[in-house]
Amino acid sequence: MTLDEDAADAGSSKGKSLVEKYGATIKRTYREALNGYAVRLTEAEAKRLAADPSVDAVAQDQKVSIAKAPRPTRRPGAWTGSTSGLCRWTAATPTRTPPVRA
Asked: Is 45 helix (H, G, I), strand (E, B) or coil?
């Protein structure tokens, strides 16, 4: 759950007492990327907590996983990378450059 930035700081006693007022047990405090907590509470407590104007969001924990990214393919007309960090364009159909005559 996250707190409204203007309402309370997650590290403050005001933030903690607000969450505990709704029966939540704080498991972890987030102060950097988020302003909130990982909490344990019932569904009814979560609904009451979510209705508080000082609360931005309440979300149920869920399992997530990282899918293996598909392997990039090289095909005509696609950008291709190089070890130098530069990219080059591969033409869909090769073109010939006429010789330069001096």
From this structure: helix
